[in-house]
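A quick word before the example. In earlier lectures we treated sequence and structure as two separate objects. From today on, think of them as two lines of the same record. Here is choline-phosphate cytidylyltransferase written that way.
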Amino acid sequence: MEELEHTCPQPRTRLTEPAIFAKETSCDCRAPHEKLSIAQARCGTPVDRPVRVYADGIFDLFHSGHARALMQAKNLFPNGYLIVGVCSDELTHKYKGFTVMTEEERYEALRHCRYVDEVVRDAPWTLTPDFLEKHKIDFVAHDDIPYSSAGSEDVYKHIKEAGMFVPTQRTEGISTSDIITRIVRDYDVYARRNLQRGYTAKELNVSYINEKKYRLQNQVDKMKEKVKTVEERSKHFVNRVEEKSHDLIQKWEEKSREFIGNFLELFGPDGAWKQMFQERSGRMIQALSPSSSPTRERSPSRSPSPPSQWPPLSPKGASASISSMSEGDDDDK
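And the structure line, produced from the sequence above:
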């Protein structure tokens, strides 16, 4: 059992290194390779080796749709070993069209996908029995849409008839053709973008007139961006002034109400100033009133009383005074 594990590549469990390249001469798997049905593979058998699943393609501009298809192929069976075949530039340009990435770039992109265990370089356009036997392939994974190419209505037809085909689902809304369409549609935008980043017109295959046009457009865009920035700053400044003005008006109103309240509290009809004035007026009136004087006010209709004598007269003196007063009265008569 230990010898079989050493002679049969196992699925990657650590992702610290890229996937290996398949040998061009033969497969590294030396374990007995009996034919499996899909039902058997889904039960996790055989236990002495992984289920070898093959998926092929161009994988130009490697994107999430590619990755999701490979993720599905990797997880078709409990112990799946995913082999990915990548067609060369020569075959791709012949049967499908020109690619953006070179074959070496596409090989490396696949090696660094986490779901891939092994990469087959220069994979065939149509799978042959010899190729399937050489790489000990159990099943082939691809979307179920018939793929017509190289004079065939479906290049996977014989794989489906042999019971080795397992379908995966396409990811809608993303494909290499969609990405290229976006670039072509917005060609001027990307040409101007790369001119700004230092690429020459020759590298971009841009004519002299278009180069000048793009550079002028870049200058105009810069001016628009500056104007937009100034407008945003001005708007921000105006908003701040409005906020400050609102705050100042609100504070002024609060202070005004506070001032008026304090004024009324002090000088109003029942204010503290009136009470204090009344208290002081009362004290002054009390101070100036007759009841507070030590002598009584004399009435103007009454004659002044004679000054009292001191010390008081004795009874004899008093009778003498009375007699003298009577004599005086008689003389007046």
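Notice the following. The first strand starts at residue 20 and ends at 21. We will return to this example when we discuss secondary structure assignment.
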